[in-house]
Amino acid sequence: MMIDVDPKIKKKKGAEYFERPDDLDDEWRDQHQASVLEEMREKITKKFEKDNEKLKAEGEKEMKPKELEERLEVVEELAQKFKKENKTGKIEAEGKGPTIEKLEANVDKLLQQIETKRVQMEDKEGNKEVALGTSKIVSSFPFSRVAKHADEQFCRTTSIPVSQSSSRRNSTFPSSGSSLRHCVRSLTGPSSLWTRIGNSK
Questions:
Q1: pLDDT tens digit sequence for 76-135
Q2: Is the Cβ–Cβ distance between 92 and 7 less than 8 Å?
Q3: Rounded to whole angstroms, how far apart are CA atoms 166 and 196?
Q4: Residue 193: beta bridge partners?
Q5: For the chain, which has fewer Cβ within 10 Å, the N-terminal or C-terminal residue?
Q6: Using H for helix, E for strand and C for coil, what is the string for the chain?
Q7: Whole-prediction pTM value?
Q8: What does the pLDDT look like over 93-102, one tens digit per residue?
Q9: Of 46, 27, 26, 50, which Cα lies nearest the Cα of 38?
Q10: How far apart, in whole angstroms, are the C-alpha atoms of residue 142 and residue 192?
Q11: Cα 192 from chain centroid (whole Å)
């Protein structure tokens, strides 16, 4: 769009500024455009169905399928636009009074959104690794031994004195809403303590 507004901008900013990243190849572009078009179709169709339901509820005459076809024409127009852009490699500037400054601001905004998404993805992957590590620790606990002695009023556990940490208390003793006997193992406390758990209510 910048080049369409000012053909000399490519020389001013340098060709590298306008090049697509290597991973955004034509195949990715085609898939992205297809997903955009499909999303538009779904939104328009759902809006049409919702409008018809409202008309029916109000006792009015429903719209005919032809109305939906007319609404979907905008999707076909965009598909043709994508096809033309892909063939010519040229993008026409859009919006009211497009300028280089406005388009640069849009680029900066998109780059910020990309960075935000990247950080969110990294955090999500990090949380997955932590959850996986935790599940491995939990799976190593000998639950079968606890189940074997479920009828006993005592179960052997490693724990820490309750007075040391109220936050750890909840990880050692079962919640009041539980109706089962639990033996919760703390990985940080001293061993060989016998703690009466019983039936908590």
A1: 999 999 999 999 989 999 888 899 999 999 999 999 999 999 999 998 888 877 777 766
A2: no
A3: 18
A4: 157
A5: C
A6: CHHHHCCCHHHHHCHHHHCCCCCCCHHHHHHHHHHHHHHHHHHHHHHHHHHHHHHHHCCCCCCCHHHHHHHCHHHHHHHHHHHHHHHHCCCCCCCCCCCHHHHHHHHHHHHHHHHHHHHHHHHHHHHHHHHHHHHHHHHCCCHHHHHHCCCCCEEEECCCCHHHCHHHHHHHCCCCCCCCCCCCCCCCCCCCEEEECCCCC
A7: 0.55
A8: 988 889 999 9
A9: 46
A10: 15
A11: 45
HSE-up of residue 194 (Cα within 13 Å, Cβ side): 3
- Which residue type does 140 have? S
Amino acid at site 199: N
What CA–CA distances, in Å, run from 145 to 137, 170, 171?
Answer: 16, 22, 19
Q: How many CB atoms lie within 10 A of CB 93?
A: 16
